[in-house]
Amino acid sequence: MSTQLFNENATQERAENARLSNIIGAIAVGDLVKSTLGPKGMDKILQSSSSRGDDGLVVTNDGATILKSIPLDNAAAKVLVNISKVQDDEVGDGTTSVCVLAAEILRQAEQLLDQRIHPQTIIDGFRLATAKAREALENAAVSHKDDEAQWREDLLSIARTTLSSKVLAADKHKFAEVCVDAVLRLKGSTNLDRIQIIKKAGGKVSDSYLSDGFILNKKIGVNQPRL
C-alpha cells in the first residue's frame, strides 16, 4: 500500500535544481524593486487582480508596498519579502535597499556555486565578511551627539537626503526643519506615534507647519461660539 504525500499536479525539485530555482526567484524580486531606488527611481503601477478600472490601482515607488502587493510562490522570494517587513517594522526605512542587497548577495552566491564551492563554505565566508564590514563601519563612525548644534546639522542632512524626491524637492529644506524639530522634541524616544500628522485638503505644501501641543480637528457647529 503506497501513500501519496503530494497533490496530483505537484512537482518536486531536488539538489541543484531546487537551489537554482530559489536563487532565481529571489534575484527576480530584487530586480523588480531595484529600479525604484535613487533620485531617478521609477514608480510602479500596481493593479489588483480582483478589481476593475481604476479601483485598486496604486502608483508607488515604496519597496515595502510593492513587495506586499505581489503574489509569490517561491520560498527564497518570500524570505526577501519577510526581510523587508522586518526592516520596515524595526527601522521604518531601507526596505528596498535590504531586499536588493540580499538579492545581489544571492547573485554572487550563484557564481560561487557554479564553481562547485559548498553552500556551507559560502555561508561561512559571508559571515566573515559581515563581521569585517561591521568592524569597518564601527571604526569609521563618528558621533556628534554631545554637540547639539552639530548633531542637529547631521539630522538635517539626513532629512534633506531622504526628502530629495520629485514631490518635495523644492521644499525639502523646510520639511527637513519640521521633521528634525519634531523628532528632537521626543527627547530620545523612538515612539513616532507621539508625532501626530493632520492632513487638510487645499492650500500649498509649503503651508505645512509644526505646532506645539495637541491640535483638535473640529468643525464649527450651528450657533456655537468661535472663541
From TrEMBL:
This is T-complex protein 1 subunit beta. It comes from Kickxella alabastrina.
